[in-house]
Write a structure and sequence with these properties.
287 residues, alpha/beta, seven-stranded mixed beta sheet, 12 helices, binds S-adenosylmethionine, 16S rRNA (adenine(1518)-N(6)/adenine(1519)-N(6))-dimethyltransferase activity, transferase
Amino acid sequence: MPPRLLGPAEIRALAADLDVRPTKTLGQNFVHDANTVRRIVSSSGVGADDVVLEVGPGLGSLTLALLGAAGRVVAVEIDPKLAARLPQTIGDYAPDQVDAFDVVTADALTVEPADLPVAPTALVANLPYNVAVPVLLNLMAKFPTLRTALVMVQAEVADRLAATPGGRIYGVPSVKARYYGDVSRAGSIGKHVFWPEPKIESGLVRIERTDRFGLDPEHRRLTFAAIDAAFAQRRKTMRSALATWAGSPARAEELLRAADIDPQIRGERLAVDDFVRLAESAASAAR
Ligand code: SAM
């Protein structure tokens, strides 16, 4: 039997039963609309072969829909009260899928592969909004088995993640997300599907992992340091913005030229490939 999904009445009943008072600090806005969770699952493309990592399962709305499509769901929830209740909710609403579900009480900002019972293949989550980008980047870094990610975040953050070079909203999250793979917007979600209703609209973002630049953590660290330096002073030319990172403006110019980048360009016009070449030229110059 497929799982039953949670609607407004079920969410209200679960919240009352648990005496949940949603907190803004933990980004606790729960989806109470079955069509929305169905849509998220269908956009994620997960199937019976997938082990889904869900961050922030909350009361279980998205979890139940995921259990209807994926082979297994491992959820990471920071709130112990919510995490403790989930197995019962899954038992009540998805009795046939109980064995395919695990919940780990942990912070998604620090969770490690060893904390999970199995390696996940796909991330699908309605992320807590105040830590959405660090959580997403942390999980892509720590869990190379994740082939895809489909996350719901604030619409503005979704736009920033999916932005391409040259625009005003292109920035650190846009470049770093592309280090892992292809990034695209996958739709918008209105406020009315949440309880409590947030002030802002939400958006879906997809990452298809390509790992074009490999999996070496040191390579990633060097590349991300160059990205952070370039965008810390985004109105400056790369020569000036990278002066501290490189040691001096002249040294920055040398490294930029070695990476075939115009020293007078601004970071907001550069693609992730440019930052990778820059970090590689800095690393080989240091050898
Ligand atoms: N998935 C549920 C839904 O769609 O209804 C809830 C989503 S709600 C936007 C975010 C969830 O993330 C909450 O359950 C919250 O307790 C949890 N959360 C917040 N910060 C977290 C963190 N650092 N690590 C893991 N879970 C977190």
